[in-house]
Amino acid sequence: MTGYLKKGRAVKYNRNVYQALTMITQFGINMLVPIFLCSFAGMFLDKKLGTSFWMIVLFFVGTLAGFTNVFRFAKRIYETPAVTRRRSTTPVRDSGESAADLQQEAADDQNAQKRGEL
User: Fold this and answer.
1) Is the torsion defined by CA of 38, 40, 44, 46 positive or negative?
2) Using CA atoms, how far apart are residues 26 and 84, in angstroms rounded to an integer?
3) Which of 44-48, 54-58, 103-107, 114-118 has the lowest mean pLDDT?
4) Which of 86 and 106 is assigned the larger pLDDT?
5) Distance between CA atoms of 42 and 61, rounded to whole angstroms?
6) Which of 14, 25, 42, 73 could in theory staple to 54 by disulfide, Cβ–Cβ 3.0 to 4.6 A?
7) pTM score, two decimals?
8) What pLDDT, on the 0 to 100 scale, is given for residue 108?
9) Spatial contact of 59 and 37, defined as CB atoms under 8 Å apart
10) 99 pLDDT exceeds 90?
């Protein structure tokens, strides 16, 4: 019995660690991909047009796009309740429900889960 509990905790811990690593990786990808794409597009335009400023301009455009991506991702994570975030990756319904309603719904789900209804 105690081995099972230890194993269950270890699985939950590993899942949390993997979720955190996934989130960190997504932040990096959301930031770096637009920067690289815009920088390479700028280098391509500089070669084709014989100019020397498109790479710098598009680098800053890519940086702005990357920060926007990261901001939106962080905002979506912050607005999603922790209980919902653990169960699925779908965003919270935007039906005018207040935070108190969502917390009550999460508490009801947890109680039902404890009773074995879910």
Assistant:
1) positive
2) 19
3) 114-118
4) 106
5) 10
6) 42
7) 0.56
8) 76
9) no
10) no
